[in-house]
Every structure is written in C-alpha cells, then in structure tokens.
Amino acid sequence: MSDFGGTGAMLLGAAASAVVFGLLALALLRPLGWVSAFSMAGFLWAVTVIALVTLTPLTAVDLAIPEEARSTTCSFDVGGPAPDGFWIFQSGQRTLNTVLFIPAGALLVLSVARWRAGWVLTPLGLVGLAVYSAVIEKAQLELDRIDRACDVTDIVDNVTGAVFGVALGLVLIVIFRPWRHKHRKRQSRQPGRMP
Fold first, then answer.
1. Which of 165, 174, 178, 175 is closest to 113 using CA atoms?
2. Is 195 helix (H, G, I), strand (E, B) or coil?
3. What is the pLDDT of residue 64?
4. Structural Rg of the chain based on CA atoms
5. How many other C-beta atoms lie within 10 A of the C-beta of residue 97?
6. Phi and psi dihedrals of 75, rounded to 5?
7. Residue 151 in 3-state DSSP?
8. What ranges make up the beta strands (E) of the chain?
9. Sequence spans of domains, the chain
C-alpha cells in the first residue's frame, strides 16, 4: 500500500485544481463569455476530480483492496468487487460511480453549445468520457500501488452518469444560452465619427 493517498489527498488535489481551473476560467472570460469560460474550466476540473477520486491510493480506512485479495483480471460480474457502502454515499459505490460523471457530462454540453459543431462534439465527448472510464479501470488493474480493483460495472455506471449529465446539460443550455454570451468586440473609432 502507498503512503500517499486517502480522502485527504483527494480533497487537497480537488482544491488545488479548482484554483488552477478557476484562473483558466478568468482567462477565458473575455473571449468566450462567462457561461462557456466557466463551463470549459469546470469540465476540465470535473475530469481531474474523477481522476483524483478513482486513481488516488486508498488507505485501510477508505476500503483499500489488499494485494492478496486483488484480482489479476477485470471483474465482469454485475456489481463486481464493489463494497456495499463507500466513504461518501452510504447507498453504495455504484451510486458514487454514476454521480461522479454527471457534472462532466453536463459541463461538456455547456462547453461546446456555443458552436454549431456542438451537435457533433457532444456525442464525441460522451464517447471520450466512456473511453476515459475504461482507461481508469485499466489503470486500476495495472497499478498495484493504488490498492484498487478493476470492475467493468464501474464503466457502465460511469457512462450512465455521463449520459444523465448530457441530458442535464441539454436542459441547462436552454436556460443559459451560451451562444448569447459571446464577447462583443469593441467598435474601433473611425476619424470623424462620434463614439
């Protein structure tokens, strides 16, 4: 088991990355408008938090999976090796895996909605989130030091959360209308014209 990890490391990483992506949002504010700027930065932060929650080594208190109990292959049984309860949601790890991907799905839609290509970028982004989930599970299988187990059910739950998030994002774009928050370029003064 690794000496570094646990919920403290996850929370510290989430807070530090929130500052970084908050600064990115401020940098994007003028050219993109507030909805797109904060959606893009928020999407990147959500993806980072997913990595922190799923790849940070666990401690014994956080239900680390001991090396002798860890499988050398991915679990394909429904529910897999997931415990009944988890450190955030008492209803189970499957709920956490679903909820974890909802913000990424919603912010993905808000991030690309200002462009006409958003109708293509949204499904591609959803596929990207599914691939991201699969890569995380592969990393959990290969990296013994993080005390995790690979479970295909997690991918199903993650993709379900991302789909729910995309559906939520489609509702949010009607409310926020990111395409209306474009930066308006200043009209340059021409000689002889009143401002």
1. 178
2. coil
3. 57
4. 20
5. 26
6. -80, 130
7. strand
8. none
9. 6-180
